[in-house]
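Shipment paperwork, digital attachment
Item: protein structure file
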Amino acid sequence: MSHTLNIKTAGIPLNQAEKALIMIHGRGGSAQDILSLSRHLNVKDYALLAPQALNHSWYPFSFIAPVEQNEPWLSSALEMVEETVKAAVNAGIKPENIYFFGFSQGACLTLEFLARNAQKFGGAAAIIGGVIGDKINCENYKGDFAGTPVFLGTSNPDFHVPVERVYATANIFREMNAEVTEKVYANFGHSINEEEIEIANSVIFK
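Attachment content:
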């Protein structure tokens, strides 16, 4: 089984925009849900693109399950993000003007995609997520972020995402020349808070 490319859009029409924000929803969420968050972000002059996962889930098991248990869904999900990026590039938007926002399962997928395809992007905010796999396989990660700003926000503890994986992800991104900002909230729960939105706006969408 695999996902079918189904991109929901909002904001400025893609062919008129200079910047694009790709928003990746979490398990049980939808493209429309995550797009509605954009009203809290400084992205009024961006094209907004949100791919929709089949059955509202990008892959079936935990992001720290053995990778093969999440296949072929995971590879298909990564391909959906890649196709969404291509849609922006094909519309004339440069990679350095392409931004990402992911939450939970969508944050994990965003971070895994970026680590596998590092280059100078506009920036990325990933709330409650980390790179994917029971073990981190750095052989999959290549490229250079060339100073791309990346914000990682999370709760400790979080039922789905161990804080250790968030720290490990931050270190991988730093090694690949991303400008990482991380913020850990004690016992906040599995959601996005107002300060995380403010940090995303000041660090990424400035």
